[in-house]
Each structure stands twice: as structure tokens, then as C-alpha cells.
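ok trying again, last paste got cut off:
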Amino acid sequence: MGKLVVSQFISIDGVVEDPGGSEELSRGGWAFRFDRGDAGNTFKLEELESSDALLLGRTTYEGFAAAWPEREGEFADKFNSMPKYVVSTTLRNPDWNNTTVVSDDVAGRVAALKSEYQGDILVNGSVQLVRTLLAEGLVDELRLMVFPTVLGEGKRLFGDADAEAPMRLARSEPAGETLILIYEPAA
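nice, full thing came through this time. structure:
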């Protein structure tokens, strides 16, 4: 059975919005102002290598689909070839290869995916989707790469109305100027 792994770039104040700058927000691109170091780059590559599929919300999917098909290299090759699932009620004909649209019964479909795959199902970005997955108790691991910045505004991973989801710290490690925190659901 596969694990559902949520991986986020996050600021000290909890902002996850537009870390790469593809959404062209005034504070976007903040993640690239810091060095993840070899440890951070290795962590992200190993994270992807252990994943059998990607699960994304529509906004993150569209950003990735615009960027990754044109790239080359080990990371890009894996991203482009692996199965991708995008949760959306509006997307009809995805262009990025190996993409399936999930438009209803998200919790049921994700539970089925966890049974279908042996490796990780990786969720990047996709804040609204992550909140749903946490509320449904479907997240097996939460990986936060914390960047040393306070943004003051932007979409935060955890909102005021989110359901309680007790977690326990499984591991932490420095990665260049960032810190990797890995949480699992508390038993």
C-alpha cells in the first residue's frame, strides 16, 4: 500500500503561496532567494524517486504542466513520465502526459490510489487539496521545507477553519539555509 506524502515549501509564518514565482504574485519566488544546499537538493530528488505518482490541485498542476514538459534531466524525466492525478471540477483535457482528472469523490479516489500504488503518492503545493486530505485523514506524512523568511501575507497551509489533525515530529534536518521537518499523524 502506498503512502500519501504532502511536501511543501513554507515560510516561517506558514505561507506556501507561489514559492517559485510562476503565479507572478508580488511576493512570489521567495523560495529561490535561499540555498537549500546539497542536503536539500538530495532530499527533493530522493523524495521524487520514491514516488510512484503525483497528486495535484488544478492551480499547482497548471504551473507544473507549463514548466516541466520542456525541461530535461533526471528530475524532469521522472516528473514528466510518472502518472499524475489532478483534482479539478473545471479541467477537462489535460495536456501533460499521463494525467488523469479526478473530479468527484476525492477522498474515495485518493484512498483507492493508496491501494493501487506501492510507492509514495506525492502532493506538492495544492493548498486546498491538502486541507481536504488532512481533514479526511488521508495524509501519511507531511514534509515541510521551512524557508527563513516571513512574508506577512499570502495563502497559508493551515487556515483558521481547518479540522484538527494531530501530528508527531518524525524527523528534522538542516538543508542549507532551510530546515526540513517531517511529520506523521499522531497515533
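cool. The radius of gyration is 16 Å. The first strand starts at residue 4 and ends at 11.
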